[in-house]
Design goal:
By secondary structure, the protein is an alpha+beta fold. About 15% of the residues lie in helices and about 40% in strands. Strands 4-3-2-1-6-7-8-9-5 form a nine-stranded antiparallel beta sheet, covered by helices on one side. Strands 13-12-11-17-18-19-20-16 form an eight-stranded antiparallel beta sheet. The chain has a two-stranded antiparallel sheet with strand order 10-15.
Length: about 290
């Protein structure tokens, strides 16, 4: 037994073409084409390339602390009774692996990798196993954290609604113009610095984390997105442009808030720094 290879997997990271994780009644599928990873299920979505590659790399580097053949594990009865945390399938140029991940002890200090086509059980330290294989937060961390990516030069109209202000504020500019002016129904004076900070923030607005996918009406209400704390609608100058509306909802703790893009089935969490930029008032009242 001591001469046995402790690695459950083998092959290069670039050779992995598909990663399938069945976790908590939800099937997550990621595929790799020409070096780029994408989510195919539960919805087609962008993936965080670095996070996915690191997850696959950690998986292929795994080494078992112990290997048990069928019937040799001292706690075999407990193992048989334990419900799997996840069902995983990895497809690569070298072949495919299908396995279950089960708790290896009551403290979850170790996990058991149980292959569906072999009696061998690999015991892995929980600290070595990629989180994406055992919990939802880990899977969601594989999703691209980009919320909005709108080049400043393409922005033509920005409308802001706040829950603490009855008036809607709109600024706009025509194609090719550099200067912004107030939209119809808005009054005051444009503060250039806050508006510049907002347009810069919209170029690469990234989430602190992904909280989940699947935004039903009930979930929108639960996270404060049906009556948002802040709503920002952005129109851009593009032939196939669709208005982007960012909804910022209730507090998520530690100065963060839940957020979503209308029409996109992803729940984000924005950090304090992003919220400060988004919520800055860029239209000031004119004082006599």
């Amino acid at each position: 037994g001591s001469l046995r290879d402790p690695r459950p997997f083998y092959g290069p990271v670039a050779g992995v073409r598909r990663l399938q994780i069945h976790l908590a009644d939800t099937l997550f599928v990621l595929t790799q084409t020409n070096g780029l990873w994408r989510f195919e299920a539960p919805v087609a979505d962008a993936a965080d390339q670095t996070a996915v590659r690191e997850t696959v790399e950690r998986l292929l580097r795994l080494k078992a602390d112990a290997i048990f053949e069928n019937g040799t594990e001292p706690a075999a009865d407990m193992l048989e009774r334990a419900l799997p945390l996840s069902h995983v399938e990895v497809a690569s140029d070298q072949g495919a692996w299908r396995f279950l991940i089960q708790p290896g002890d009551l403290e979850n200090a170790v996990y058991h990798l149980v292959f569906t086509n072999a009696p061998t059980v690999f015991q892995i330290a929980s600290s070595n196993l990629p989180p994406a294989l055992v919990n939802m937060a880990g899977v969601f961390s594989l999703r691209d954290k980009s919320v909005l990516a709108l080049p400043r030069a393409s922005l033509r109209r920005i409308t802001v609604k706040r829950d603490d202000a009855p008036a809607v504020v709109t600024v706009e500019r025509d194609s090719g113009e550099a200067l912004w002016h107030l939209g119809e129904g808005s009054s005051g004076r444009i503060a250039e610095a806050p508006l510049h900070a907002l347009t810069a923030g919209l170029e690469d607005l990234r989430a602190d984390r992904i909280e989940g996918v699947g935004l039903t009406a009930e979930r929108l209400a639960a996270y404060g997105l049906s009556a948002p704390w802040l709503e920002i609608s952005i129109d851009v100058d593009a032939q196939d442009a669709v208005r982007k509306t960012l909804l910022v909802g209730r507090d998520a703790g530690f100065g963060k808030r839940y957020a979503a893009i209308r029409g996109l089935d992803v729940l984000f969490v924005l950090d304090r720094a992003a919220l400060e930029i988004l919520s800055t008032r860029f239209v000031e009242p004119i004082t006599p």
